[in-house]
Protein 1
Amino acid sequence: LVFASATNHTITGVVISGEDNEPLIGASVYVNADDLKKAGVSQTSLGTITDIDGKFTIANVPSSAKTY
């Protein structure tokens, strides 16, 4: 994912297996730690895992974050 904007955002999506096109349960999705550091936020990690349908939500993603 690539992201750029002027404010913090909430990122949502679905992780799908490249092998069988099924949702991936429990996949880690996170904002790159270097992007958090560059944004000047005190957090050292920001992420989540996908649910039973492969869905995820990450809130308060810094606008300067470019990769996750």
Protein 2
Amino acid sequence: MVGFGPRARARLHTVKNPLVVGIDPHLHRLPAVLRERFEGQLHTPAGRQAAADVVAEWALPVVDALADKVWGIKPQAAFFEQLGAPGVAVLERVCARAREQGLLVILDAKRGDISSTAAAYAHATLHPEGPMAADAVTVNPWMGMDTVQPFLAVAREHGAGVFVLLRTTNPGSAMFQKYGSPRCADNLADAVAAENSSDAGSALGVVVGAQAAAEAPDLRARMPAAWFLVPGLGAQGGGLADALAGADADGEGVLPAAARSVLFGGVDEPDPGTDWVGPIVDRAEDLAQKLREYGVSRGWSWAVV
């Protein structure tokens, strides 16, 4: 079984960019022509079904169009789960379609529990027979590393990955992540490195926000084999250098993620048009090209066309 790290690296060299596009169906930002089918009805089962149908109509063509253009996608589970069973069914379809198209899928679910509960979450999200089978999943490890182990067991068996929240950049994160000397985040980083030292597939990665770019080189030194998932590129203010600050010596090991800036162009209002796929693809290609050009400027081999 080929591990997550080699699979991630192979995909990077195939598409020549590390961009991960978030699939975040903010209902109030969807095109007006789609919103009108469910607006004002979300309090009813029929309305939630209508909204889920709209999300599928919006998301699946986007996934198809991005297939050969970016490294992968990152569906945010909450935006689907808010619609109940119909929304979860669409999430399953999005994950399956993306993997069929060759995209790698990081399911942004931020699960976190222990023992049999964590094992159930892992089966649902990482096992090939699970309903939301993805290539990787995000996990909240702040209950302890025993929340991570059940996910790692499934990931290692099936060549998948686990991304633990290490340095998020929300305002309240410092309460836990920066506490103590050494910081709790550094202790977690060392635990990640220890796990990966015996795992040639580098199944365990970390989430490091682009706004924590100043810390990224030190975290890379602590975790030489870990893949970094880097949210915050674009709408949250992160630039190219910020997003790639944690790259290894070959410019690999980082996966910058952008959602709102690609999906909606940073606009909070619904798109009045009927072609949402074309603009999304244009913005994704533009950002992917900028990442590639940055890689070329640094002499990184994956960026050479």
